[in-house]
Amino acid sequence: ASVMVVGITPLERRWYPQPYSPTNQSHAVAGLADSRVVINDVIDQILDHYGLPRSRIALAGFSAGGVMAINVAAHSKEELAGAVCHAGAVLEPNKLPKCKYPEMPIVLTHCQDDDVFSWDERYLPMSEALNKQGYRTECITNTWGGHRVDRNDIIESAKILLPRLGVEDESIN
Questions:
Q1: Whose CA is closest to 72, among 62, 88, 60, 56?
Q2: Region 157-163 average pLDDT
Q3: Rounded to an integer, what distance in angstroms lies between the CA atom of residue 59 and that of residue 39?
Q4: From CA 121, how far away is CA 155, in angstroms rounded?
Q5: Burial 2-28 (b: 16+ CB within 10 A, else e)
Q6: Which band of pLDDT confidence, cut at 50, 70 and 90, is reported for residue 1?
Q7: Residue 42's Cα: distance from chain center in Å?
Q8: Mean pLDDT value across residues 15-19
Q9: Which end of the chain, N or C, is surrounded by fewer C-beta atoms within 10 Å?
Q10: Residue 127: in which H helix or E strand, if any?
Q11: All residues at 6 or more sequence positions from 20 whose CB lies less than 8 Å from its CB, including other chains
């Protein structure tokens, strides 16, 4: 089976306004619904053009893009193959909806020394909220590396998602 990668760049190069702090995110959260619509429109265009089921679509993003990958997956009307969040953290994790698709993996890659989406203030509450709401959370963590995604994060994420995309060959490296 083959895999196609489609990149989506948000208008004005941001998915939502930057949060002021972990406790003051209302301004940022207000932009999430509009961005979900944009991403779902692109997914619908891909589905219409290629005749794929939504269950063969995986979303992945870095930082705010990762936030959107989880946000779209969590609010999806149909099950996706999964979502990957590289160095991002859900805004208002305690408001995540209950998981509708417990087999759909949500892959989190994060460094403990990330200074944008910090480990204690952002990553741990997100991870705990996803688990509490019943999501199949797969965590790939690093002690150091800052706010980034590296080759190993991508490879390990792909190993989790490829079987859900119909790709049996796990010789990715």
A1: 60
A2: 94
A3: 10
A4: 27
A5: eeeeeeeebeeeebbeebeebeebeeb
A6: low
A7: 16
A8: 82
A9: C
A10: helix 124-132
A11: 27, 28
